[in-house]
Amino acid sequence: MSLTYDSLPVFIGGTLSGPNNNNYIPATQVDVTLNTSNNPKRKLGKTIGTGDQFGFQGALQADINLTSLVHSAYYTGYDFIKEANQADSFDILIGDNKYSLCYLTDLSVNIEPFRPVTVKAKFTSLQPDTGVQISGTGWNVGIGTVNPSIDGDGFAYGYTSTVTDGDAGNHEVLTDVQYSMTYNRRYERTPVTRLNNINPTEMLLDGIEEEMTINSSGLETLIDYEGELLNRSVAVSINNYEGKNGIGAGITTPLLNMIEFKRGSRIVTEDYSVAGGDSVTTRATIKQIKL
């Protein structure tokens, strides 16, 4: 019997103790890849042995890619985003399979009109679940009925999220109309392997870079060969309908105000286009170095 999606909920961090765990995230897709570091054993004057064809010169690498939505009821599962936790590892539970010492390497957020806000994250696990079967849990996530529950009104959408570009009437990058935006954060990490250990025991954080691309109806100014330095911050507030209108539980930290490009960030790319019967569309890319 094959496993179906409803038996493979995703939890990140915490005690990972079961269905009452607050670290559930509303994932829509998860991909797990296990890679060995193998090389053929080709020796001069010797044939390849039938049962000894490969040598292994590195640890098993497990990459976890997940896509999730943003919901007001579930935020502790996103603690891996917090600045205070950027050097830390987390455990990830997918169904009944546990992946330990998971380090975030890539993070992206996509916001479009009238579509749910999506978060994509890539982790590297130093202690993946091996030698066992893929297994699911005996419970699933209901729609507003069981714990953890998912209420449709709690999701964040593009039309409930806003881009703050400088001050009112004094935009830093774009004109008044923003169509969509994509945010990316990349972590540079170095695995640490100690003597008498097959697998790395931790990963050191070497650097963090952030990039945001915003599609709009116009640009304030065209950049020169140095790009353009931001004199004011450009930020994105991720929220849902209830939070935006102050009538219920909105999106909370760490997702609410996680995207902010402060003064000193730089616009590095701009482009614009226009087609017959259409208006000008523009795109600007902002970068900043966090570490």
Helix content: under 10%
Uncertain ranges: none
Number of strands: 17
* Order of helix and strand elements from N to C terminus: EEEEEEEEEEEEEEHEEE
- Major sheet details: 12 strands, antiparallel
Shape: globular
Radius of gyration computed on alpha carbons:
23 Å
Percent strand equals 35-45%
Distance between the termini: 48 Å
Oligomeric description of these chains? single chain
Determine the number of helices (DSSP H or I, runs of at least 4 residues): 1
For the record, the count of structural domains works out to: 1
List the topology elements:
Elements: E1 10-12, E2 24-25, E3 27-35, E4 38-40, E5 54-56, E6 61-69, E7 90-94, E8 97-111, E9 118-127, E10 162-165, E11 178-192, E12 202-216, E13 228-229, E14 234-237, H1 241-245, E15 259-261, E16 266-273, E17 281-289
Describe the protein.
The strands form three sheets. Strands 1, 2, 3, 6, 7, 8, 9, 11, 12, 13, 16 and 17 form a twelve-stranded antiparallel beta sheet that branches. The longest helix has 5 residues, at 241-245. The radius of gyration is 23 Å and the shape is globular. The chain has 291 residues and is mainly beta. It starts with 9 loop residues before the first strand and ends with a strand. It is built from one helix and 17 strands. It has one helix at 241-245, and strands spanning 10-12, 24-25, 27-35, 38-40, 54-56, 61-69, 90-94, 97-111, 118-127, 162-165, 178-192, 202-216, 228-229, 234-237, 259-261, 266-273, 281-289. A hairpin with a 7-residue loop joins strand 16 (266-273) and strand 17 (281-289). It has one domain.
